[in-house]
Design goal:
With 100 residues, the chain is an alpha+beta fold. 41% of the residues lie in helices and 21% in strands. It has a single domain, classed as YaeB-like fold, CATH 3.30.2310. A hairpin with a 6-residue loop joins strand 2 (62-65) and strand 3. The longest helix is centred in the middle third of the chain and has 20 residues, at 26-45. The protein is globular and about 35 Å long.
Length: 100
């Protein structure tokens, strides 16, 4: 069985996203959390499904939008076992600044 592991930064990212959404709507936060977990499970099985984004980083990481909440992006290292989730961002952030 394939699995994934969140870095401490990715864990903080996810908790921050969920706390922010939950302040307005606990139901919406639960839906986003479920979508993130579904995306992580998918990526653990298909680690090269994401996209390389050299405009944001030279690191060997990939990006995956959380479906159906595509404004959130999962940044992960496809070569690691278990899959290492580096960050989880809102797409409006300056990604390059956080991925150096």
């Amino acid at each position: 069985m394939s699995s994934y592991q969140l870095t401490s930064r990715a864990r903080r990212d996810l908790l921050g996203i969920l706390d922010y959404i939950e302040a307005d709507s606990p139901d919406a936060a639960a839906r986003v959390e479920s979508a993130v977990l579904d995306s992580l499970a998918f990526l653990a099985l298909h680690p090269y499904a994401g996209h390389i984004r050299p405009q944001f980083t030279g690191r060997a990481v990939r990006f995956w939008p959380v479906h159906p909440f595509s404004r959130y992006l999962i940044v992960y290292d496809p070569a690691t076992k278990p899959l290492s989730v580096i960050r989880i961002f809102h797409g409006a952030r300056d990604l390059g600044r956080y991925l150096t």
